[in-house]
Amino acid sequence: MQLLEEILTLKETSKYLRISSESLRTLIKKREIPVAKVGNQWRFKKSLIDQWIFNQCIEHITPSKNLPPTKDSTPTTPSLSSKETDFEDIL
User: Fold this and answer.
1) What CATH code is assigned to 1-61?
2) CA angle, corner 51, sides to 47 and 54, nearest 5?
3) What is the pLDDT of residues 24-81, one digit of tens each?
4) Are 55 and 34 in contact (CB under 8 A)?
5) Residue 78: Cβ-neighbour burial (10 angstroms; 0-12, 13-18, 19+)
6) What is this structure's pTM?
7) Which residues pair with 36 in a beta bridge?
8) Checking DSSP bridges between strand 41-45 and strand 7-9, what pairing results, if any?
9) How far is it, in rounded angstroms, from Cα 60 to Cα 77?
10) pLDDT tens across 18-39, in order?
């Protein structure tokens, strides 16, 4: 038996996300959140909202490719001596 997926209204989604209905409407207008219009009302698939939240978290923790690396985020590579870089000596 297939379980029905939970579909949320605008009010339920704003409550679920803990944001105002107006903030949610702004996200809809900017096309930043997955939503479908049924008649004249917005509907949200809960699993897509959960995925959207997950993606927002990933974007938040992933450094932007457009920004230059900060001094603290630049990886440091220890310098190798000439013996360590000669692979024949290592093998």
Assistant:
1) 3.90.105
2) 140
3) 999 999 999 999 999 999 999 999 999 999 999 998 887 766 666 656 555 544 445 4
4) no
5) exposed
6) 0.64
7) 43
8) antiparallel
9) 26
10) 999 999 999 999 999 999 999 9
